[in-house]
Specification:
Blueprint: E1 5-15, H1 21-31, E2 35-41, E3 44-52, H2 53-65, E4 72-80, E5 89-91, H3 112-118, H4 162-169, E6 190-194, E7 199-200, H5 205-214, E8 219-222, E9 227-232, H6 236-246, E10 254-256, H7 260-263, H8 271-278, E11 284-288, E12 305-309, H9 314-320, E13 327-331, H10 343-350, E14 356-360, E15 372-376, E16 379-384, E17 394-400, E18 403-405, E19 415-424, H11 434-450, E20 457-461, H12 467-474, E21 480-483, H13 485-496, E22 503-513, E23 519-527, E24 532-538, E25 541-542, H14 548-551, H15 554-565, H16 575-578, H17 582-594, E26 600-601, H18 604-614, H19 626-634, E27 646-648, E28 653-656, H20 658-669, H21 674-700, E29 704-708, H22 715-727, E30 731-733, H23 745-759
Parallel strand pairs: 2-5, 8-14, 10-12, 11-15, 18-20, 20-21, 22-29, 24-28, 29-30
Antiparallel strand pairs: 1-3, 1-4, 2-3, 6-7, 6-14, 8-9, 9-13, 10-13, 11-12, 15-16, 17-19, 18-19, 22-23, 23-24, 25-26, 27-28
Length: about 750
Amino acid sequence: MTDNFVAKWLKVNGIVQGVGFRPFVFQLAQKYGLKGEVANTSAGVSIHVEGLAGHITSFEADLATQAPPLAYIVDIASQTGIVKQYSDFAIVKSHGNSRMSTLISPDVSVCDDCLAELLDPGDRRYHYPFINCTNCGPRYTIIDDIPYDRPKTSMRHFIMCPACQAEYDEPTNRRFHAQPNACDDCGPHVGLFDYHKIEIGKQNPVGKAVELLKQGNILAIKGLGGYHLAADAANADAVRRLRRRKIREEKPLAVMSADLATIRGYAAVNKEEEQLLTSIRRPIVLLRKKTPNSISDQVAPRNNYFGVMLPYTPLHYLLLKHDFTALVMTSGNLSDEPIAIDNDDAFNRLAAIADYFLIHDRDIYLRSDDSIVRHIAGAERFIRRSRGFVPIPVFLKKEVPPILACGAELKNTVCVTRQDKAFLSQHIGDLENVATYDFFRLTVDHLKRILDFNPEIIACDMHPDYLSTRFAAEQAPIPNIQVQHHHAHVVSCMAEHKLEGDVIGLAFDGTGYGADGTIWGGEILIASSHEFKRTGHLATVAMPGGAAAIKEPWRMAISYLQRTFGDDFQNLDLPALGEIETEKVNILREMISKKVNSPLTSSLGRLFDGVAAICGIRKQVNFEGQAAMEFEMLAADSTNQAYDYQWETGASHRLLTTPIIEGVVADIQSRVPVAKISTKFHRTLIRLFAEFCDLVRRESDLNRVVLSGGCFQNATLLSGLIQALHDKKFAVFTHQQVPANDGGISLGQAVVAAAKARQA
């Protein structure tokens, strides 16, 4: 044995299981003539190599730079090993241990190689709806435990045939240790049923499903992370019927088309949006509508955008290759419920919606809705972070204790931390019913299991009535740290950018429980990870009826008008006022003056609602933020004008809304088009907040501004404020890894709780 014949032991941590990493290591060892072994462990991948020192150096360099496309290497630990005289290099059985710290790949779209086989009549998997390999297919939704091996996935019920087993066992094969590997002889199968559970179309269930869709039927289709409800998006009657049955009156429905060329027929697609659409994550991307287009106006009424995605499973491709412009592919649920994942549950819950069911027999262990993204102000912005991205962690500035953060009530996600990584769950939904709360608890248990996680701290919102807050209290004696809603918003964005120290935080949303017991939502904070000061806020107004004012924006219109004009507001020449019954107006006046069920709010979301209602956009909404969204849709670059604004100085400066309301009303009375009013309103907010940040900078000497909260899903507000702040030489930080809305709250809660624990 020569002196330069050495051994190395390498430990690789990251997303390195189920992504073809071990075959990659095997082939790399062959390339450099090295001996040894590679194995999955509960901490990642363990490699022992022996050979010439120079060859091992080259092996290590390639290991870090040439990994498979789905692999994500966090770190590689290397130490000198003992030469054991291996005769070859082998992939060996997984090693388990008590500490699980590996990362799991998200579910990703079918790859080009598998797609080519799917559509090749000469291939043995021709038209097989579950074709996959190590580079694609299901991961997170089929895992029950780790290490990620077939017996710990929902594929354990399917015994591979000799041909599939041979692929699985061959290190040079693309399907080597692809845990969902299967074919028509040995794997899952599709079946078509009517809503009475009677099977039809046994010979060609997919072909029959296509025929039924073309006839205008609604199908429940089992996918990767749950069921979709599908209909021909060009068939207005089918879409209208789907809306009525699903009890989803106007909220936009997602659509799926076969390819980019088809999408470009009805929506504008720029380079950045094309990259989002075609990425292996396959999110829903918000695209501006083309006019005219062949998509039913029932898909996204009174909206300038379609939510569009490309196929991501083989089954989607088989359905869409039959000349559909697009299929509606909306979540398989009744409004406000979790999506169905179990076949029996789907029949029970969706039989009143779907005419037919295209199902399969591969279990989904954890539901995962489609992710929704939008390209705004030069970056990808999440509206919903779920399938395709979860459970990729957010990497933190420093290590933190094991913390479970329970999230908010709306758009709930949970977050668990381990060392310097924060794992946000998939979208759970609004914790307003038992079904969603059960899903919340299931998700917590699943994350605990697959991450071998036991929290030392529980973090939650301050609101005493949130189900997530009650859950946190039930985890005693584990210490419970409550985090103010808007502080969590700001810190979630700080965590993305690894910011420490104080920042100016703008937290704008619809509702959040304030430290003073009022409803916050238009907040300017000086914040660090462990504390905050409310340095400014929108002036509070009454929210008559409490939560009813969210669903009926006319209530906020009355509140802002009364605050601005007193009782004389009823004499104003406002068409929107004439549409509200005088008796209702009088009742609200009494509620406000007597402070009956009229909590105070500083919410920017409610200001948007109120102004939209004053302009006659909408008296009531069918989904959260609808009035504000439709008001934004009208804004254009038609004017540089803005309304007057001012603030009152104090311990916490009050940004007054009365000058803005006065300006809006004057324009309405002068018959100024609502589109121009919307533009002026947005410009007013942008100038107001940019100038106020200038004031805070003079008072605090802070130059970093963080933008967070659901109002920053408004593209006009976000892009305009970023530019205005840049013009004033601020360093501006915005969300790119998690949603600005409440879907990112759990990350902020976890980081605040960690900082508070360090301060204790």
